[in-house]
């Protein structure tokens, strides 16, 4: 039987705690759960009130991956859910990770956490903008940093405050807190910015997904602003060979990046960073710097 533990008055069965999920570092499932428990304060703030999608990898990053938006089978009755619109006028229910107990139940599934740019009460009304910078080899996070600095300046010209985090994979995410705005308007604005970036940095940027155009360039993906799309949540672990984390970074770190490895953070790096910086993406939560879309 799986060991039982109590979290915030909820009894949970946590399974296979000694199972090695990341063979490259020997990281076990128990260590992954410990990471989420100790990072819960910051992670939950970014998950709160956003319907969560899960990229599950129960046998580690080398095993099968599967993406699910529906409530996983066997979810406890106390896990909160929200009705979410789907295409064709249909609806479905998705998990809301609102507390530590739900976070630990979800983490026990071994999953990346992904969320939309809108909150449960206002589906399709975004309170943030995201630009996903994806490098095409041989480009790396270093080239993403150059593009991110351009984007920061361009967004500032429109009165928008930008923040950055690593994707936890190869690239960067540039995020902007917004006053509530229809997702289609945010998407249209994000596309205009991506097109401008390509026009201003033609040797470095593409704004289309065509693979043939991407080697050596950074794809500025604006599509994650669509109401139907989701983005890796800050502080989520990723299903990568190493236990990398989608990590908030300072603009000084972005500006000074000279090697991709400088912006690769593992789960053991996060607690010291939180102690040093606090949550660098805090303004995305309290919206004290949210601005209207130009």
3D architecture notes:
Helix content is 28%, strand content 24%. The protein starts with a strand and ends in an 8-residue tail after the last helix. Strands 13-14-10-12-11-16 form a six-stranded mixed sheet. Strands 6-5-9-15 form a four-stranded antiparallel sheet, with no helix packed on it. Strands 1-2 form a two-stranded antiparallel sheet. The model has no long low-confidence stretch (mean pLDDT 95). It has helices at residues 29-47, 100-107, 141-157, 183-200, 251-256, 267-277, 283-286, and strands at 4-7, 10-13, 20-22, 27-28, 53-56, 66-68, 81-85, 91-95, 111-115, 125-135, 163-166, 172-182, 205-206, 218-221, 231-232, 248-249. The chain has 294 residues and is of the alpha+beta class.
Question: Can you give keywords for this protein?
Answer:
294 residues, alpha+beta, 6-stranded mixed beta sheet, 7 helices, globular
**Relative strand content:** 15-25%
Q: Mind summarizing the main beta sheet?
A: 6 strands, mixed
Number of strands: 16
- Could you give the distance between the termini? 56 Å
Order the strands across the largest sheet as they lie in space.
Answer: 13-14-10-12-11-16
- Summed up, the helix count is 7
Class from helix and strand fractions: alpha+beta
Over the alpha carbons, how many angstroms does the gyration radius reach? Answer: 19 Å
Shape: globular
- Indicate the low-confidence ranges by residue numbers: none
Multimeric organization: single chain
What is the helix/strand order?
EEEEHEEEEHEEHEEHEEEEHHH
Q: Helix proportion of residues, in percent?
A: 25-40%
Mean pLDDT: 95
């Amino acid at each position: 039987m799986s060991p039982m533990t109590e979290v915030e008055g909820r009894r949970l069965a946590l399974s296979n705690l000694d199972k090695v999920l990341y063979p490259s570092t020997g990281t076990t499932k128990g260590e992954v759960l410990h990471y989420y428990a100790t990072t819960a304060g910051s992670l939950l703030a970014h998950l709160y009130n956003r319907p969560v999608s899960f990229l599950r990898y129960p046998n580690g990053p080398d095993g099968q991956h599967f993406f699910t938006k529906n409530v996983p089978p066997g979810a406890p009755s106390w896990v909160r859910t929200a009705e979410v619109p789907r295409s064709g006028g249909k609806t479905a229910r998705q998990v809301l990770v609102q507390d530590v107990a739900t976070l630990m139940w979800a983490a026990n599934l071994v999953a990346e956490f992904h969320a939309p740019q809108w909150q449960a009460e206002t589906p399709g009304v975004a309170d943030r903008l995201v630009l996903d910078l994806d490098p095409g080899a041989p480009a790396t996070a270093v080239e993403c940093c150059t593009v991110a600095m351009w984007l920061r300046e361009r967004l500032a010209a429109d009165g928008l405050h930008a923040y950055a985090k690593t994707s936890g994979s190869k690239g960067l995410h540039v995020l902007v807190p917004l006053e509530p705005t229809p997702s289609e308007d945010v998407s249209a604005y994000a596309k205009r910015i991506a097109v401008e970036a390509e026009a201003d940095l033609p040797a470095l940027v593409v704004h289309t997904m065509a693979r043939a155009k991407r080697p050596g360039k950074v794809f500025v993906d604006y599509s994650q602003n669509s109401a139907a799309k989701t983005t890796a949540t800050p502080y989520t672990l990723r299903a990568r060979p190493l236990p990398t984390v989608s990590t908030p970074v300072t603009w000084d770190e972005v500006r000074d990046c000279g090697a991709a490895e400088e912006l690769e953070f593992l789960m053991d790096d996060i607690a010291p960073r939180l102690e040093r910086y606090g949550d660098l993406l805090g303004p995305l939560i309290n919206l004290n710097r949210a601005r209207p879309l130009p």
